[in-house]
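Subgroup meeting minutes
Present: P.N., E.W., G.H.
Scribe: E.W.

1. P.N. recapped why we're keeping a running log of single-chain structure predictions: easier to compare across weeks, and new members can see raw inputs and outputs side by side.
2. G.H. added today's entry (176 aa).
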Amino acid sequence: MEVQVGYATLSIFGVVGPTSSGIDPPHSAYSLDGRKFEYFNASETNSFQYNQRFYLSPSLANGSHSLTVTNLQSSSVLYLDYFLIAPVNNGLSSSTSSQMHSGATIASTTPSSTPAASSVAMNDSTSRCTTAIVASVLGTIILGLVLFGIIWLRRRKKRKSKEHGISSCTYSRGFT
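Output recorded in log:
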């Protein structure tokens, strides 16, 4: 995997599954730009633990970087949630906020000026996109039901008026 970043850190978050489900705890290795591997070894757990940080890179300079991810558990699958590229504070004034996600704290820094770094939190943006999509679909369904109800009521009213011999307009075919 290659990443184009400037003055940022790269974090990888994943899932640690319960041993009762037959999923072995993840054991993985990470190497950035050919450096020596850094290892992540999860301990056994009784429940799924999401958003667990498997890897945190050192500060990355501008340019293209190569990251090697190796699953050391050949009998198990390595479940990755998302990658987070966060800008590094290089003496610029900034504001910092953090959010709690299933026991993992993720800090995001917003610089006052715009350095050549990008911040991507796929988990949060996916959540916002999902909310927007669900709201749009529900709004469309409700609007469709209201329009269907109006049309159905109008047709019912016309049908009842025809049954009672009341006609809103007279129609004549002419002489036969």
